Fold this protein.
Amino acid sequence: MKNVKEQAQKIIDTTHGNICNRCLGRNFYPQVSGNDNHERGAYLKDILNTAEEIPEKGEACYVCGDIFRELEDILERIINTIHDSGVEFETFLVGCRLPPEILEKEKKIQNEIGSENDSLKKEINRELGKELELRLEKEVDFDNPNLVIMMDFANNQVDLQINPLFIEGRYRKLIRGIPQTRWPCRKCRGKGCKKCDFTGKMYPESVEELMAETVLKATEGQESKFHGAGREDIDVRMLGRGRPFVLEIKEPKIRELNLEELTSKINEYCQGKVEVLDLKMVSKDRRSGIKASSTETYKIYRALVELDQETDEEKLNALNSLNIIKQRTPIRVSHRRADKIRTREVKEIQVKMLDSSHLELVVNCEGGLYIKELISGDEDRTQPSVTSLLGINAKCVELDVLEVNI
Ligand SMILES: [Zn+2]
Ligand SMILES: [Zn+2]
């Protein structure tokens, strides 16, 4: 205890007694008991007073400049800022930014007595958090807060950061010709030029934009980001139970959503093009979960195949041997994918002859198998293929995804 007294006296001397109870007490956590640093400081001043005279605190606290006296005003400012912003939230986290000179003074005192168990910043955050929980009737969440409140003492302002919300669901793409996500114009890279009719895009619509339009309106969000469990080509439909996705909405003001109503509104807006189903609110971890490694998945495709010579039912039996496929990166994607040979499994294939030169195939296969190339053979880069087994050039003229499992 003697040591504590000496150290406390040292702080009193350095600051000429201009130190508030909290800033004094904070240096003696946890060795001096008390409910908070204010109590610790008051106790220390008390025992020092009985030993010898300590100067009356004449000026503002050397360390914090009496910041805790302004706490009531600060709380009011924060609450008003939140109300004015109109943001909806259930959980929050509050932090503060202190001017460098305050941090330097705190460091100086800490160095003198070698204690760094608590800090002014932590104490302010604690006090603000406690009071805001009570007054706003919301909960502090350290990991995934809806709203981050930053009290910036350095610039004397309150900053609000609204964290994104995440909606998981499945989509069906009912028509061909729409990309999954917004595709910036190749020529102007999104700035807008003659070629893209000053839209900055290769295609006027995408699955993402079609569904986000309605969700952005409902949430009053600023921007959307689409995370799909893989993607289909522009000319491929996505049918069946749909493809899983997570839609991220940045800076949403509204979080309380009636998902049934939202589903109807999206589907009304995207009518005949895109349909969403099974919407649910999820946490941000699902963003990466949805992009699970493609080999753990399986997919079912329906393909319409055109042959450049006539064939008959008997020859088609050869297709039942399609099983382990060695597939070198297809020519059409080789500019953006590493050139390597992948092994993928065809689990099941159903073959239906439509006429002597047209087939319908339903292929159940491992994720990551390129179906168009499974059919054409891609100049022997895919082996075996429909082309190699029939000895007739085969081409995929229509493709639908019927099921995606992750
Ligand atoms: Zn102080
Ligand atoms: Zn352009």
